[in-house]
Amino acid sequence: MTKSLEEKIQKDIEFQSIIKDLIENDTVLEMKKYRQHYETDCFEHCYTASYYCYKICKKLRLDYKSAARGAMLHDLFLYDWREKGDRKGLHAYTHGKCALENALKLFDLNEIEQNMILRHMWPVTVVPPKYFEGFILTIVDKHCAIEEFNEHMSKKRVFKYAYILFAALFLKKIG
After folding, report:
1. 26, 32, 96, 148: least CB-packed within 10 angstroms?
2. Report field, pTM of the whole predicted structure over 0.85
3. Is the dihedral of CA 89, 90, 93, 96 positive or negative?
4. DSSP 8-class letter at 87
5. What pLDDT is stored for residue 138 in this prediction?
6. So where are the chain's domains?
7. Cβ-defined contacts of 106-109 (< 8 Å, 24+)
8. 95 Cβ contact list (under 8 Å, min separation 6)
9. What is the CATH T-level fold of the domain 3-140, as seen in this structure?
10. Read out DSSP for 19-60?
11. Alpha-carbon distance 113 to 107, whole Å?
């Protein structure tokens, strides 16, 4: 997450008040121990996704409070997904259910929040979200993963130049 985005999120008083109880919870804070994509930990990934869902859903006059809360908890799985351990099934297919189970132990969640957490991996998983807020999370989640990849790659000198070259060629081709 860029410094300017982090500052913008922290200054949004309404957003902070919606997720305050979540981000102050000791179990939710444990997400900082687990790497999500590249250098980004699960907490930061969910925090950013939560803010984007909040902003988009508010603009669309959807349930932006549920969207922010569901997105903040969507990856509350609390394990290193790169290690198989004793889990059954592949992480991409099972972590939504695990995150929902963990979240329900800590918070009273409404149906939108629960469905967002459970179904956020669509279309990888077969069953789509039931609510628009969930569809927005599926898109935002993928966007955040791409941004985390771009941030990681921009720090790598060789990949930075390759990325710029690729972007220039792509833009020339479509332009």
Report:
1. 26
2. no
3. positive
4. -
5. 95
6. 3-140
7. 106/25, 106/27, 106/28, 107/21, 107/22, 107/25, 107/69, 107/73, 109/69, 109/70, 109/73
8. 75, 77, 81, 121
9. Hypothetical protein af1432 (1.10.3210)
10. HHHHHT-HHHHGGGGSEEETTEEHHHHHHHHHHHHHHHHHHT
11. 11
* Contact present, 132 and 153 (Cβ < 8 Å): no
Residue type, 60: L
Per the structure block, which two tokens stand in for 101?
């189970």
Angle, CA 71 vertex, CA 69 and CA 72 arms, to 5°: 65
Query: Do residues 92 and 124 touch, judged by C-beta distance below 8 A?
Result: yes
Q: Locate tokens 């004793």: which residue?
A: 86
Q: Which one of 39-53, 63-77, 151-165 scores highest in mean pLDDT?
A: 63-77
**In this predicted structure, what is the pLDDT of residue 109?**
97
DSSP 8-state assignment for residue 128: P
Banded model confidence at residue 157, pLDDT cuts 50, 70, 90? low
Integer Cα distance of 155 and 150 in angstroms: 9
pLDDT at 4: 83
